Amino acid sequence: MPDGARTRERAQRRRSPRVGRHRGEVERGDFARTFSALGNLAYEGAQVSAKAVDVETGQVLVAIDDRIVLPTASIGKILLLIEISARLTGRDDAGYGILDKTPRDLVGDSGVWQHLQAPSLPVADLATLIGATSDNLATNVLLRQVGLDAVRTRAESLGLMSTALLDHVRDTRGPDDAPQLSVGSAAELSWLLAALARGEIVDPLTSGRVLGWLSLNTDLSMVASAFGLDPLSHRGPEHHTQVINKTGTDLGVRAEVGVLRGSRASVAYAVAVQFSDENLSDRLRVLDAMRTIGYDVLEYVH
Length: 302
Description:
The protein is an alpha+beta fold.
């Protein structure tokens, strides 16, 4: 390129409107409420990270410290579901069969299998339990079947460098255990959900199966609380609105990733907040902020 042309090109770039490091331009809705809500949390001492992108165009709608790595609790289970779905697609023997729960798999907190009499369930049913209730026992049994290394290898093959499932689910974490169940960046997680929605993770069949499991999620307490949907029945569109999401909850951690489809657009989003969970008011402020993000996303898709 001649020097004169390069000079004109650089001048044109300088004159063009610039997108701020923490902000993206949008056609409708400026996500001002999101910036204000998350900014207030950060001012109070929380670590916040968020990103939302238009699934079809790839346009960045909002990006707030989206490359920092934060604990994401159960969101890392999505990587396990991708590995299981890929094995089902490939007719790998490890993706089939009926698996038993054993004493070393037992863990409390989220999930229903620990409360059921059934000692064994098919692999696909265990994935369904994870999608619907983030079932910890089902997670441990599936991890025992496929191995944590395989899940890590799958994540790396997808190009994920900052997002990982680090460990089995544990009731308590000792000094020799991974400090978190999973970690991730909003940049990678929003990309992952958008790619799933476009059928690009492994192949359309594998992506669609993962989305089917996640569509059963009963936790609409965070970002998705703004969408007005029935937590127990929202697989189909209602008022031209459909959400597919996964949440992560731990002491001092609230995170959610998802895809919201509306009448005009679809948005993939990822939000993580690490905060001082010393009292109920701290937690409620975080949930209020996450709901505010949901309002901005909802406004955009309609």
